[in-house]
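Private note to self, pasted from the team thread so I don't lose it. Backbone tokens:
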């Protein structure tokens, strides 16, 4: 399954680099442009999905706020983890007017929830943890209202029973709303 995932990402990235033209990037450069972003991906412990609201704060800076869900397994313990994430991104490098490299930082709050009965050695079913995240993303404009996003981030969480460091890698679609 992982090999099919990599093949999909590389073919999609190749098509996105060939298809765009300069006029497609107009919305993601306008101050106060708003967009919705949906991502799916994987981490070493399982799969995740997120939904973000993105607001363009300036030509090179954007803010993101979103909710997500991780379904994971650590050793033999199945858990799921809804989370809230807020971050600020900066357009670090512009490959062309259609392909951008962003770096970002922010914070996340997770609620790790055990599936099933209480596990021996753990004193509760829900663990709330919080921490910082840093990451990078490639934004590829496909049309003037749709962009493809390939993202990776590293989370450093406090009070976590399921790993203090969590890596997440995924891809998604950003849809630009018409409000400036």
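Design output:
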């Amino acid at each position: 399954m992982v090999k099919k995932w990599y093949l999909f990402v590389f073919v999609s990235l190749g098509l996105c680099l060939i298809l765009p033209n300069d006029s497609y990037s107009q919305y993601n450069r306008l101050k106060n442009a708003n967009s919705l972003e949906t991502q799916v991906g994987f981490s070493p412990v399982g799969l995740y999905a997120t939904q973000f609201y993105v607001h363009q704060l300036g030509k090179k800076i954007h803010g993101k706020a979103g909710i997500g869900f991780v379904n994971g397994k650590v050793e033999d313990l199945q858990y799921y983890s809804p989370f809230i994430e807020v971050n600020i991104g900066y357009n670090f490098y512009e490959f062309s007017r259609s392909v951008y490299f962003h770096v970002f930082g922010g914070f996340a709050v997770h609620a790790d929830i055990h599936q099933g009965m209480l596990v021996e050695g753990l004193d509760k079913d829900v663990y709330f943890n919080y921490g910082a995240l840093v990451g990078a993303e490639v934004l590829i404009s496909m049309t003037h209202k749709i962009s493809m996003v390939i993202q990776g981030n590293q989370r450093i969480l406090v009070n976590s029973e399921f790993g203090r460091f969590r890596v997440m890698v995924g891809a998604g679609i950003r849809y630009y709303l018409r409000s400036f």
